[in-house]
Fold this sequence. Notes:
By secondary structure, the protein is mainly α.
Amino acid sequence: MTSQRLPYSPVVVGAVVIVVFDIVASFAAMRFGFHYGIAAPGSWLIYAFVGFDVGRRTDIAMAAVGSAIVAFVEATIGWAASAAIGPGRPPGTLSVAGVIATVILVAMTGGAIGAIAGFIAQYRQHRR
Length: 128
């Protein structure tokens, strides 16, 4: 039987990795001249890894929560870091409501990806 408590280690590691990824992607975008948004699939992959790891330890709901937390960290700390570096800075000004909506959308996307990855982890475990 799986535990219903969120394992913190994959979430903390995922949060650190996502912020480092955002910083590296920001510098790479500046150096090589590509649009920063092209790095998004890398973020999705990190959400998926976290969701898979949490999902194999607990359940699909916790996988979604774990990945949503990592996505929230990216949408706040990672976005602030990339904006400070340059490429993550939105054009013009963004309202507080726009920032909140973006953070919510990113967290929801991360949660959805985590749920899918958690489902795959659960499916693989039950097939054995």
